[in-house]
Amino acid sequence: MRHLLVTLETVYKKRPFTENIPMTTKLSALQSWVDQVADHTQPDAIHWCTGTDDEYQEFIEIMLSDGTLTTLNQEQYPNCYLHRSDPSDVARVEHLTFVCTDEAEDAGPNNNWMSPADGHAKIDALFDGCMKGRMMFVIPYCMGPIGSPYSRCGVEITDSPYVVANMKLMTRMGSDALERIENEGTFVRGLHSTGDLDPERRFIMHFPDELSIKSIGSGYGGNALLGKKCHALRIASHQARQEGWLAEHMLIVGLESPAGAVHYVACAFPSACGKTNLAMLVPPDSLPGWKVWTLGDDIAWLHPDEGGKLRAINPESGYFGVVPGTNETTNKNAYDMIMHDTIFTNVATTEDNEPWWEGKKDGTPTTDWQGRAFDSANGKAAHPNSRFTVAATNNPCYSSLADAPEGVPISAIVFGGRRKQLAPLVYEAKSWKHGVLVGAGVASETTSANVGEVGVIRRDPMAMKPFCGYNFADYWSHWLAFGERLEHLPKIFHVNWFRQNDEGEFLWPGFGENLRVLEWIIERCEGRAGAHESPIGFLPNPEDINTTDLDISPQVLEALTSVDREQWRIEMESVGEYLESYGDRLPDALRQQQQTIAAELSKSTYKS
Ligand code: SAT
Ligand code: MN
What pLDDT, on the 0 to 100 scale, is given for residue 537? Predict the structure, then answer.
């Protein structure tokens, strides 16, 4: 361990490099790739990460000494640190993210495409000598429990200590992962450098056929923590299609009823739609006896098991969550979880050097996310996409099954979006095929997790628009075929917590009260709850939702559980047009689902 500190200090203080770390692996494919990358990028030294807590602490020390991190109030926030990113590097960059396949059609209209040769040429030129004066870190990691047959491994090479520390919190990384990689022989290769952080020289490229990723010019989570969106979604979705499983942008949560029955559900919402809040939901006092267990807050890998049931693992082991809005009312579990052992990125601070963000109920910001004296004329104190990184073990409701190699059985799949209008609080698809259409039709108002305009509606099928590593039309075919292979199909639902009235007020209280909707969902899975049929699916009757001790008027509940036929007719037409933009590859079964529903909505007999 001394070695690392000595080496890092040497490099960081730009003294001549004196000592090296032993760096060998018995896997020659890995060793030769590391050698070749070192040749190309010219680091001053190489460190192979072992993943120990001591090593993590060393990285923290280094970042404190070079200013990458600052210490937060250690009395109130022990082991919490603040990172301020470059102000131009605060979100994912979809316009700079590419999928490089031989044929453009295989990447599909849902991805930016480059040929592998062009992609490599363009990005390799930027990697040329980019680690001179820096140190290179080799991070072997395992997405999923080390002993699970469903897990897949990768190695990320990076020049960013911030990435290493975040990968330690987010993944199972280090010696155990390396051992598995050496035994298996295959791994996803991820090469990352922060480069010069110039947005003009920033790219995130995926080469699914080579199982490799190259990312340069950004240190932001989704662009730089390559195990997350790049590997566990874009590359894994491609692997999953070949191997017969699903890699999805879904949280996994266990819901334990007062009677002690636990159902696991997997939910897909676009970024920053409250996935972390739902995954860590705190049951309200008005619903006594319920318990909620978090398996994951962002990504689910779903496999059919031998008995024909769907099982899920969370490939991650930590959370990279949106900070603003987190407080004791919205998400007490998260609020407590980030009071220790957390890396904050781009939050504001108070006079007492506590982290501060919009929606935090106590404290006053004195310094904004860019380190300037806070002045509301400059905008928000914390960046709207400011983040916390914590290990999942910090979560007070972390499920003991999150490490189970066999994963958990999934009772329901839930899609959702942020829609002011149109989408009811909840509805149930009539079949798996219909559920695939419901997923394909997901749309949401955009948020600050991606660079670009905020608040416009865009289609985000299965919440995978930025993350599906191949043509969506082929992805929907894969979903349809996957359903054929499952003997026990989970039910598929759609929820919308974000309906508003004409005054812009939310109709549904959200947060912990969302458990009432989940209660209906699991009772539907058990065949117990009532519903009425509509062209878009089964909706609860107002009395089917448990509203005990909930302050909600019958009119509002009625509005939340009904279908505006005219609006839906227009929506289904727009879904049809969207699907047709995928051309010949669009599966017929999906087109038929859309046509059947569109035809039903046009009939005059249906009354909402
Ligand atoms: O892309 S990140 O994983 O950094 C954040 C998100 O959009 O979910
Ligand atoms: Mn996400």
Answer: 98
